[in-house]
């Protein structure tokens, strides 16, 4: 039986900043339609891994690839294949919602009617159609995050990378963002890397979870598998159990 | 570039400051000199004590009274607080003609006149010079009479005449004594106009997080830099035009108020003889300054750090540029090869020697700096420090 090729893959990924090793031999894969969560405490190496996959940083050693394109050798192809939501919303406040999406659409090679119709479609999906012509500086945090997700989807990338997409959102806003992510990734079979330290979010969205601590993979599996391994219930307990064990070792 | 331009056009405050600031400030700066120092707006006030027993001091006082723009106040004696009155500009100058003024002159001797002014006031110093000229013109008449009585010609006391000719192109300051300073203001105003928006487009994007998304997009670093650079240039051009218009406006206002003589009191106004070199230098200067601002912005880790670097650069540009105007020419030639500030000094060499081999070579070196600065911006853009957390 042929196994499906991974859309996103890292192999023994290492990243050093001077004497500090931020990522230490990390290996994981994400297939199309999967949502793989990178869980870890602050400083675990999640954001560094995301930045390597986004081609913002180069690995010290090891490999990272997106749809078979190496992040170092073919960074342009990698960037064209990804939609990224960073922790900050990365939107231009002086532009309208429509203009922000149109701008990014054009950056990703779309033009003319194609980009305009895609932008209208996405504004409907994220529920911002009636605010399309308003400048982003007047948007709430939740609205900005929804627009940021729309921006990541504008060029219909096969791979989504989400870095703390619901950070600093209130409960209703965070829930609406999670529902949006769930719907979009499932319906469009996108390979999604979700970076979070919100266990509820990981439990709600992830098909598989990779737990990272001090740049290294501590455990990997579905939430149920991890509960069985750690003999606990709930990802939060799983995480605390595994990370504590790691510390004790 | 369309996105960059949209952001710039929607920044009304920056647009207004780029255009209104030089347009308003330049005429004000040039008029302040006129208001402060010319006698048309406020007459020079001369306090005179005439103790002369003869007619000559009175003749000189009459000459003072008849001169345009003077107000002569005749006093019996100098007040005890004459110092204060000079310091607070009640009077600009005070003069005391002694009792033996006419008799000494008639006897072929020298007469001493006590003159008081306040060196802390430029107006007082200019008024002093003004009244001195009147006294010296009277003195010339006395000297001519003395020589005639001895059957000697004026050349007897002026044995040497200097015949001064200017070398090079022979260009002249068409209007104001400090017209060359106009190019200095161009350098500073254009830099200041682009600085705020340039830092916003570099370190500002990093602070807001939009730079990450931009760098992670398919746009290459070169495309990003070129787009940002091109979006800054209209700001610079706007400020350039506004500065030239402001300088010209200042000159026009002065001339309207004071007639042709107004030009001599315009310390700074537009000098049209610089126009050809300005048209050549302006594009180079604009791109250099825009590239430098982006370099500062992308190099800095935080906005505060960028603003500190920008302040240092502004200080070096302004003080350094002014200072070099007063250096010997052989040193200024070397400084005209320095990026940005060199463009201002180079324009003065154009005035004296046109597009000479030196001026053209220096221009080409300035163009080379554009390449160096852009390459530096690209190098900084590729550095990992751009996306890692600030210190």
Structure overview:
The complex is a heterodimer of chains A (249) and B (391). Chain A has one domain (8-92, 158-248): Rossmann fold (3-Layer(aba) Sandwich), CATH 3.40.50.300. Chain A has nine helices and ten strands. Chain A has helices at residues 46-53, 75-81, 97-107, 112-125, 141-153, 171-188, 199-205, 223-230, 235-248, and strands at 8-17, 20-30, 35-39, 61-66, 69-70, 82-85, 159-163, 191-196, 208-213, 216-221. In chain A, a hairpin with a 2-residue loop joins strand 4 and strand 5 (69-70). Chain B is mainly α and 391 residues long. Chain B folds into two domains: 2-36 and 173-386, no CATH class; 38-156, abc type-2 transporter like fold, CATH 3.40.1710.10. Chain B is 65% helix and 6% strand. Chain B is built from 16 helices and four strands. Chain B has helices spanning 2-9, 12-37, 56-66, 82-87, 101-106, 122-149, 181-201, 203-208, 210-215, 221-258, 262-265, 275-299, 303-324, 329-335, 341-353, 357-382; strands at residues 44-50, 70-75, 93-97, 114-117. Chain B has a four-stranded mixed sheet. In chain B, strand 1, helix 3 and strand 2 (70-75) form a beta-alpha-beta unit. In chain B, helix 7 (181-201) packs antiparallel against helix 13 and helix 7 packs antiparallel against helix 15 (341-353). Chains A and B meet through helix 2 and helix 3 of A and helix 1 and helix 9 of B.
Task: Tell me briefly what this model is.
The complex is a heterodimer of chains A (249) and B (391). Chain A is of the alpha/beta class.
List the keywords.
heterodimer, A: 249 residues, alpha/beta, four-stranded antiparallel sheet, 40% helix, B: 391 residues, mainly alpha, abc type-2 transporter like fold, four-stranded mixed sheet, 6% strand, elongated
Structural class of chain A: alpha/beta
Gross morphology of chain A is globular
Percentage of β-strand residues of chain A:
15-25%
If strands are numbered along the chain, what order do they take across the biggest sheet of chain B? 2-1-3-4
Low confidence ranges of chain B:
170-178, 262-267
The ordered H/E elements of chain B are: HHEHEHEHEHHHHHHHHHHH
Q: Using the CA coordinates, give the radius of gyration of chain B.
A: 29 Å
Roughly how many Å is the radius of gyration of chain A?
A: 18 Å
Strand order within the widest beta sheet of chain A: 6-7-8-3-9-10
Structural class of chain B: mainly alpha
Number of strands of chain B: 4
Work out the helicity level of chain A: 40-55%
- The chain-level mean pLDDT of chain A equals 88
- Beta-strand percent range of chain B: 5-15%
- Our count of helices of chain B gives 16
Total separate domains of chain B: 2
Number of alpha- plus pi-helical segments of chain A: 9
Q: Quick one: CATH class of chain A? A: Alpha Beta
The CATH topology annotation of chain A reads as: Rossmann fold
Name the pair of protein chains with the most residues at their interface, and give those residue counts.
Answer: A-B, 29 and 21 residues
Biggest sheet statistics of chain A: 6 strands, mixed
